[in-house]
Each structure stands twice: as C-alpha cells, then as structure tokens.
Specification:
InterPro entries: ADH-like_C, ADH-like_N, ADH_Zn_CS, ER, GroES-like_sf, NAD(P)-bd_dom_sf, Zn_alcohol_dh. It holds the Pfam family ADH_zinc_N. Keywords: Metal-binding, Oxidoreductase, Zinc. The protein is α/β, with parallel strands linked by helices and 364 residues long. Helices cover 26% and strands 23% of the residues. α6 links the parallel β8 and β9. The protein is globular, with a radius of gyration of 21 Å.
Length: 364
C-alpha cells in the first residue's frame, strides 16, 4: 500500500510503499477514503507520544472508509460497510469498558500511535464490533473522517464534560479543528460563545460557526479579562482546545464563580508545566475536567444532530489534499479549518504545452 511514514521523531516523512496491514482477530482492515490532519499527529511526529516506539511509523487517526476485510468473530460489520471509528479504540473487556467509558479504556489502541495509522491506503482496527461506527449513506467520507477525533472530542467535551445548557456562556480558547467544532456544538446547544484565537481567519470562521463574540488574543495583555467582559462576568464553561500552559490558565481565569474548565488540548511535558491558579479554583469553587475523545456507542446523539442539519461538520473542512501532499501538511501549518487527505485522490495533472502555445489539461 501507499502510505506516509517517518523513520525517527522529527525526521522528514515521505510517501512510500509499505506492506498492507494484516486483519486482526476480531478486527477489521479499512480501506481509507478520507483522513484528517490533526495536531495530535504533529505531536506524535515530534516524539510527544510514548506509544510510538517502532519505525517506520505511519501517522493518522481520524478516518472514514470502507471495510475491506474482517477477522474471525466479527458479527456486526462486514466487508463493504461504510464506517468511521473513534481515535480511542477500546478493548471492550476492561473495567472502564464494562462501565461504558471506552474512551479511557485501560487497554486501548490508537491508530497512528500504538500501530500504523490512516495516512495510508489501508488501516487495521482492533475489536471491530466495539469500535466501528456505521455511516449513513448521505454522509460523505470527508465529513465522517472529521468526526472521529476533533468533532466527537469536542461534542463530548461540550455536552458531557462541560454540561453546557442553553443561555449559558461558553469560552473556547484556540479555534483549530477541535475549537471550531466546540464553538459550533455549544452554539447549537443554545449557548452564547466567546471564541479566542490569534488568527483573524480562525476568528472569522468561529463567527460563522456561531460565536457571539471573539477575542483576538494577540491584541490583549489579559485575554481572560477580555473574555469575562464579553461574557458578562465570565463563562459558565471554558475549554482549552489548543493545549498550552498559557491557554489552560487563561481558560480557568475566564470562568465566573462555580464555572467549569474542560482541558481538551494536549499538554505534553515538553511544553512546560501549566501554572494554574488553584487559589481561584478553591475560592470560586471552580471545576476542572479532562476530556479524551468519545466512545463509539455514544455517537448516536451526535450523528442524529448531524443528519438533522443542526450540526454541520462539513463546514469545518478547509482543504482536501492528496496523499502526496500529506508530508507537508503533517510537518507544517494547515491553515484555518480542518485539513483532510483522500488517499485515493490524485494530484491534478500539470498542463501540457500544445503546438502553438495553447495549454491543455490531460483529461484522465
């Protein structure tokens, strides 16, 4: 199969031929039709994830596609089914899974981290009956691929961990894929949203996703104060969707009394330890919650809102690239919105010169 791989942390990734993944027992091999480029992939490439131990390594954990093959014991899915998958793939057997909390499975696997991921023609998924989510026929692969990490993560962070309700104020720090998803989801729930970022383009996208107010963090010495002013005294729920010591602190300081901070963005040790205002957490009875994806069995309400048009994740897709474009997208900045890769998409042919100087495009 064609895949993007790198041979060491920080080494240049490249497109190359690699062996197709074998089908796991009780698992499935998915033919990848679309896969997202996420900041978590960049963290993995930089060596911030201890699960990546063997090289060459294939990144990619947001995906949608078609089942190519199933292993022995799979009963709920069959080859040809259109599916997506949460980035946390659960074992289905540990105490956390037994409690319905597969997103914190004690024996979890994650494509693109514990094994080769979805920047490839094919990817293997373990425990298919636990982890695969069937796609409605009307949902495109590109839309579905964004659900598995950023959108589903934001959905659970806003609704289950944040507990946002209509009329409340929500603050979202960082308007990348997770942040823009959170803005859209909170606004759809009836909340008033303050979006925070340093990019004017990202803030404009946040407005289109339903933000009531925006704060340009590059133009304020005290970002949290600007959020509190915009939110009439502070947010009821605030999310750090970026993951940095500065945004984690600002998110907590954006809250009103008895508010709730949800940490979604990764805080790797290399970024430094976040200096959190625990004195305020105590005095104001603030809550701090982590949020880590969403289990496959919990996708139903989100999928219904997408099908009904109340949530429109397709609007968050900024660019769709070929697999050949993926190395640059992984190592660089991807711009506002979500960047998607379609492994079977081929680059547009270059114009060829006709006699007489006119340009034509090969019609393949």
């Amino acid at each position: 199969m064609r895949a993007v791989a790198y041979d060491a942390f920080g080494a240049p990734p490249s497109v190359r031929e690699l062996p197709d993944p074998p089908v796991p027992p009780a698992g499935a091999v998915i033919r990848v039709e679309a896969t997202g480029v996420c900041r978590s992939d960049w963290h993995g490439w930089q060596g911030h994830d201890p699960d990546i131990r063997v090289f060459p390594h294939v990144p990619g954990h947001e995906l949608a596609g078609t089942i190519e093959e199933t292993g022995a014991g799979v009963t709920r899915h069959r080859p040809g089914d259109r599916v997506t998958v949460p980035f946390v793939c659960a074992c289905g057997r540990c105490p956390s899974c037994a409690a319905g909390q597969q997103q914190v499975c004690e024996a979890q696997t994650q494509p693109g981290f514990t094994h080769w991921g979805s920047f490839a023609d094919y990817v293997a998924i373990e425990n298919a009956d636990v982890n695969l989510v069937a796609l409605p026929d009307e949902m495109s692969y590109t839309t579905a691929a964004g659900l598995g990490c950023r959108f589903a993560t934001a959905f659970r962070a806003v609704t289950a961990r944040g507990g946002i309700t209509a009329g409340q104020w929500a603050a979202v720090h960082g308007c990348g894929g997770v942040g823009l998803s959170a803005v859209m989801i909170a606004a759809a729930a009836g909340a008033r949203v303050v979006a925070v970022d340093v990019s004017p383009q990202a803030l404009e996208l946040a407005r289109r996703c339903g933000a009531s107010a925006v704060v340009d963090a590059s133009g304020h010495e005290d970002v949290a104060a600007a959020v509190r002013d915009a939110a009439g005294g502070g947010a009821h729920v605030s999310l750090d969707a970026l993951g940095s010591p500065a945004t984690a602190r600002a998110s907590i300081e954006s809250l009103r009394r008895r508010g709730r901070h949800v940490q979604v963005g990764l805080l790797p040790p290399g970024a430094g330890r976040a200096d959190l205002p625990m004195d305020r957490v105590i005095a104001w009875e603030l809550e701090i919650a982590g949020s880590h994806g969403m289990a496959a069995h919990a996708y139903g309400p989100m999928m219904e809102l997408v099908r009904a048009g109340a949530l429109r994740p397709e609007l968050l897709v900024g660019r769709v690239l070929t697999l050949d474009d993926a190395p640059a997208a992984l190592t660089g900045t991807t711009g506002p919105g979500i960047t998607m890769i379609e492994p079977r998409r081929r680059a547009a042919p270059k114009p060829q010169e006709r006699q007489g100087g006119a340009n034509v495009v090969d019609g393949r």
